[in-house]
Write a structure and sequence with these properties.
By secondary structure, this protein is mainly alpha-helical. It has 21 helices and six strands. 66% of the residues lie in helices and 3% in strands. The chain has a two-stranded parallel ribbon with strand order 1-2. GO terms for molecular function: xanthine transmembrane transporter activity.
Length: 442
């Protein structure tokens, strides 16, 4: 029996139809759409290892492997590409600086294991408890603070080549407003390409490593370090990432269910969390970046109306094949600091704005003190780089402190305000998060 039924004539999608996850077009069309998914994810996925110092081929390998694992765990019922998560950038950068790459990988493994455990709980008990623990004001705050916390990193790259960075940033914004549809959604990717060309004209490119790299070869692997004393304090910085990955996965599942018009897809929420957890754990064990479901690929599905999981098998296999070229990875690693400074000025800000959009889409009432202080305190702590330092190198960074502060202020403040009936609490029912970036529910 075939894994996928042929949709219609296999060549086209009727204006009022969608290609469901268990369907596919003919293989030439499916392969073309699968490659399009690779292009859509690539601009974001390759930036994470560049910004964190991880090898690009290794990250590509585990994004492809993670995608295939996701399809296997969800039994081909949920289309998704697992690419590098931007939520890992800040903790990985901080952990690498303070305790080394091995400790950063240990943090990624810890996130993956915890996410998989939460996935098992959600699959068994349902997603309602996640909805109550992570309401829109908290979800938006945590996503926003992770993006805004990276402002200093963007400035550091920008200042190394301000002219190239400014041109790259300007072109990235221009592409976003000039192009329609798919090209507009990959404006960051196009901005990197344009900035790279401009940097080449200015003589800022170094191809030494590219010339030495082989055309074909295995990615480089590195194991996590759980023995270094600084590892365990570094792990604390990764815990807020779990909340972001939960929000992204829950939002992805609900977004697909809404677009396909099949509420039964929501039953795969727990499996999605388990799959992403396993993928992230595997990547962390061998030197890759943590993964998450990708909004860029949601955009491709929305524009093509093709939700076939067959296309994602093609995308996963294509990513694995690309990872087998060290020269390809060396070209990506040759992107100069000025180009990175330009795109990350926009990119990190956009991560923050996604958090703000969660507030807007879910109509968070910022007239209520609990909501005001939840967001206000957390954002200032994250942007200001607050830190708590202890003995033997133990340190809690701004993201950890800000996340804990947001959770305590929101849930503690609500409990007190409702007990006292002061009207300072969040007036909304604790509704589900997602779909992230979707239309607000009436």
């Amino acid at each position: 029996m075939s894994l996928w039924k042929i949709h219609g004539n296999g060549r086209a999608v009727a204006p009022d139809a969608v290609v469901r996850p268990d369907e596919r077009l003919n293989w030439p069309a499916t392969i073309a759409i699968g490659v399009q998914h690779v292009v859509a994810m690539f601009g974001a996925t390759f930036l994470v290892p560049i910004l964190t110092g991880f090898p690009v081929p290794t990250t590509l390998l585990f994004s492809g492997v993670g995608t295939i694992l996701f399809l296997l765990v969800t039994r081909n019922k949920l289309p998704s590409y697992l690419g590098s998560s931007f939520a890992f950038i800040a903790p990985v950068t901080a952990a690498t600086t303070s305790a080394g790459t091995g400790s950063a990988l240990a943090g990624i493994v810890a996130v993956g294991v915890l996410l998989a455990i939460i996935g098992v709980v959600v699959h068994t008990a349902g997603v309602a408890w996640v909805d109550r623990f992570l309401p829109p004001v908290l979800a938006g705050t945590i996503v926003a603070l992770i993006g805004f916390n990276l402002a200093g990193a963007a400035h550091n790259n920008f200042s190394q080549a301000p002219v190239t960075a400014s041109v790259t940033l300007a072109l990235t914004i221009l592409f976003a407003v000039v192009f329609r549809g798919f090209l507009g959604r990959i404006s960051i990717f196009l901005g990197v390409i344009a900035g790279y060309i401009f940097a080449g004209i200015r003589g800022e490119l170094d191809f030494t490593a590219v010339e030495k790299a082989d055309w074909v070869g295995l990615p480089t692997f590195q194991l996590p370090d759980f023995a270094t004393p600084g590892t365990w304090s570094a792990m604390a910085m990764f815990l807020p990432v779990v909340l972001v990955l939960i929000a992204e996965n829950v939002g992805h599942v609900r977004g697909v269910a809404t677009m396909v018009g099949d509420p039964a897809i929501n039953e795969n929420t727990g499996k999605a969390l388990i799959a992403d957890g396993i993928s992230t754990t595997l990547a962390g064990f061998f030197g890759g970046s943590g993964t998450t479901t990708y909004g860029e690929n949601i955009g491709v599905m929305a524009s093509t109306r093709v939700y076939s999981t067959a296309a994602y098998w093609v995308a996963g296999i294509t990513a694995i094949l690309l990872s087998m070229s060290p020269k390809f990875g060396a070209v990506i690693n040759s992107v100069p600091a000025g180009v990175l400074g330009g795109v990350t000025t926009a990119l990190y800000g956009l991560i923050g704005v996604i958090g703000v959009k969660i507030w807007v889409d879910n109509r968070v009432d910022f007239a209520r003190p609990v909501n005001q202080y939840t967001a206000a305190v957390a954002l200032i702590v994250a942007v200001g780089g607050f830190a708590i330092k202890g003995e033997n190198g133990f340190e809690l960074g701004g993201i950890v402190i800000a996340t804990v502060a947001a959770i305590v202020i929101y849930h503690g403040g609500n409990a007190i305000a409702r007990l006292r009936r002061t009207g300072a609490d969040d007036p909304k029912p604790l509704a589900a998060v997602g779909p992230i970036g979707g239309d607000p529910e009436e």
